[in-house]
Design a protein that fits this description.
heterodimer, A: 246 residues, alpha/beta, 6-stranded mixed β-sheet, 4-stranded antiparallel β-sheet, 9 helices, B: 296 residues, 3-stranded antiparallel β-sheet, 71% helix, flat
Chain lengths: 246, 296
């Protein structure tokens, strides 16, 4: 088993004295699905955004796919990691002025120097896989939220990432659109993708997660297998959080 | 509400008519006083003055009309070059200001703050008398040859006057454009930056392909008015002796006494120029909006 992400004692504060990350340590092995839960403001987004260098660290050691992403990291190095780590956001963040196809092929063409036809063929295949192959020539705003989020997943997958990060991918969706996105993620997990997923979807966590990590106030409260976490969480704070969720 | 609008419009119309009446009255009084009558026959007469700079052949025996045309071309030359360079400089400085790089950002901030404090006329005089006339008499440099006689750039001979006006207008307008570009860039949601970064795209590429295209609708209208400002400001060229349309018109009016006709021609020329600029920008604007609307 190889280690995909190894973090020890990560510390990050946006405002002095207020630690968004307060000594977080964790390990994600290849092929694993780690679900991160916790109340609002507990540092979930901050944490997974350090994994592809969108946030810098104040201190701690972080190793992603064998590359160190510590306090002082180099732009080139970070960019290399971003090509190997895909990210999906709560607000989709598709490029509104580009067609669906262009959204997906931009990075493969510019970053991986693939030919246009090659990148397009691959994009169509990914869209088909997401069940939205016929949307390729539309623009983001013409799609439903669920469809847009599946495009965002396809866009991230187009670079053949080794790890996928999801930050509340279904929180901005209408309830009836949540399932189609979760299904796409389920498929991905089944095919062995290494995933770190911040979500409040208990069903997804129960079913897909290998481990659930619970955070509060910038710290890891507990990390358990889903069975344990949902039936007999070890920590009082986890149990209180879960009782509020259900 | 409609009624009030109607009254306002009526008021404005009456004021405009009164103004027009006043102008026509003044015009008539002037024409009678000078006894010249309104006419454009003098345009065909030889100008009798030399122009330091002309895009097309010109000698003092050529007509006033030709002199004015040369002046118009000189204006056009400095305005078009100014538009292009000010845009490049403004976009670069605006992008630098909203970049994460502290050094770049504060350099650009200093540039904008400094340039906006100093009147344009002063800046033009600075570029002319201090910067360009301060160059040594003997040419220096390789590809670009600099001297106080002018600048040679790849076989292109640029006069000191032209360079001073061009640099002055560029630097001055660039600062305003930088602010507009910065505002436009800041209006693009942060998520767009995060999205392109998370795909491993470089900052410059993301700025060009993702951020700027989305900032354009906010930038273009303000940019148009900066372009019109630059065109108007180009008439300050007379201060450093660049033979632009305004300078040539000025000489022409002094020599012929044809102030009314001269100003009418000047007005028309600038109207034409401004229409060209705003027309071009409107076309560009609707092309951009069309592209964005398709994406709605
Ligand atoms: N850009 C920022 N500037 C300042 N403070 C920030 C910034 N981003 C996050 N924070 C603060 O850092 C802490 C952790 O925020 P973070 O977004 O990581 O929490 P979260 O667990 O993702 O919350 P949510 O469930 O609401 O998304 C919060 O106190 C938040 O206010
Ligand atoms: Mg969050």
């Amino acid at each position: 088993m190889t280690v995909a992400i190894l973090a020890s004692d990560l510390v990050k504060s946006y405002t002095p004295g207020l630690r968004a990350l307060d000594g977080v340590s964790l390990q994600v092995t290849s092929g694993e699905v780690l679900v991160v839960m916790g109340p609002s403001g507990s540092g979930k987004s901050t944490l997974i955004r350090t994994f592809n260098g969108l946030e810098t660290l104040d201190s701690g050691e972080l190793d992603v796919l064998g590359v160190r992403l510590d306090a002082a990291h180099e732009e080139r190095q970070v960019r290399a990691i971003r090509r190997r780590v895909g990210m999906v956001f709560q607000q989709f963040n598709l490029f509104p002025h580009l067609s669906i196809l262009e959204n997906i092929t931009l990075a493969p063409i510019k970053v991986q120097k693939r030919s246009k036809p090659d990148a397009a063929a691959r994009a169509i295949a990914l869209l088909d896989q997401m069940g939205i192959g016929e949307q390729a020539h539309k623009f983001p705003a013409q799609l439903s939220g669920g469809q847009q989020q599946r495009v965002a997943i396809a866009r991230a997958l187009a670079l053949d990432p080794e790890v996928m990060l999801f930050d509340e991918p279904t929180s901005a969706l209408d309830p009836e659109r949540v399932k189609e996105v979760l299904d796409a993620m389920r498929q991905l997990a089944k095919r062995g993708m290494t995933m770190v997923v911040v979500t409040h979807e208990l069903g997804f966590a129960r079913e897909v997660a290998d481990r659930v990590m619970f955070m509060d106030q910038g710290q890891v409260v507990e990390t358990s297998d889903p069975q344990t976490f949902f039936t007999s969480a070890r920590e009082e704070r986890s149990r209180r959080f879960l009782s509020q969720m259900m | 509400m409609r009624r009030r609008n109607l009254f306002i419009q009526l008021g404005i119309s009456i004021a405009l008519l009164a103004l027009l009446g006043l102008l026509i009255n003044n015009l008539a009084v002037n024409l009678i006083r000078t006894g010249l009558g309104l006419g454009f026959g003098w345009l065909a007469r030889p100008a009798g003055f030399a122009l330091a700079e002309s895009a097309l052949p010109f000698t003092p025996s050529d007509s006033y009309l030709w002199a004015l045309t040369i002046g118009w071309l000189n204006s056009l030359k400095v305005i078009v070059a100014g538009l292009v360079l000010a845009t490049v400089l403004g976009v670069a400085a605006g992008a630098a200001r909203s970049s994460g790089n502290r050094l770049l950002s504060s350099l650009a901030g200093g540039y904008v703050a400094l340039i906006r404090q100093v009147p344009l006329l002063l800046q033009l005089l600075f570029w002319y008398f201090v910067a360009f006339l301060g160059l040594p008499a003997a040419p220096m440099g390789g590809l670009i040859k600099l001297s106080n006689q002018g600048i040679q750039l790849l076989g292109l001979n640029l006069s000191v006057e032209f360079c001073a006006v061009l640099v002055g207008l560029t630097v001055f307008t660039g600062a305003s454009i930088a602010e507009i570009v910065r505002g436009g860039i800041n209006a693009v949601p942060r998520g767009q930056w995060e999205a392109f970064r998370s795909l491993g795209l470089a900052e410059g590429l993301g700025l060009r392909r993702i951020v700027l295209p989305q900032a354009l609708p906010a930038i273009l209208p303000a940019l148009t008015s900066q372009y019109l400002n630059l065109a108007k400001n180009s008439t300050l060229a007379i201060a450093v002796g660049y033979a632009d349309l305004y300078a040539v018109s000025d000489t022409t009016i002094t020599q012929t006494g044809r102030a009314i006709e001269g100003f009418l021609l000047l007005l028309l020329s600038f109207l034409l120029l401004n229409l060209l600029i705003s027309g071009g920008m409107a076309a560009f604007n609707s092309a951009v909006l069309g592209r964005l609307n398709r994406s709605r």
